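Most newcomers find our protein records easier to grasp once they have seen one. Sequence and backbone structure share a record, each on its own labelled line. Nothing more is needed to start thinking about how sequence determines fold. As an example, a complete record with its sequence and its structure tokens follows.
=====
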Amino acid sequence: MEDHETLKRQHAILHYLSNIPPKILSLHGADNVTEFVLHALCDKSCFDLKRAAYFVDNPDFNCLKGVAGCAQDECFGDKCAWQNPKDFSSHMQSASFNQQVRDVMRCSVNGGTEAMKALTEEVAKDLVIHNFSVYSWPMKHGNHGVLVYEKGDNSLDHLIPNGVCLLGFCPIF
């Protein structure tokens, strides 16, 4: 049986995740909603990810494109991103890890599991993501979301699928 502290942490994460959809709606029309969501998912109050890179794999166009990146060492500080959207957007435009992720453009991963493993190893190495993990999920229009991430001290891997699917509701810019 899981200990009480782990259950409290799980409950806190699920509560945190349930507050993200209204915040997404508050940014209606913003191009970079994905950056806000990824930043929230990486927060220590949520999944506590040291680094996370989000990609969309589009087999129809044979393209794997970097969409957003978040690194705790380049965090926004004590300000709330959702309450300071202009400042946060400016910060993300100059965040080097985010720009590195957004510059990634590769061929689609049509080769299955082994091709995905080779590609994510290469991308993780290029982006200096240590001891990385990968989560991939189906998205609309036959696309796939891919998250390459480095866990923090309080990460709970088994809850990540409950949060990263929120990225699928964000526009790709």
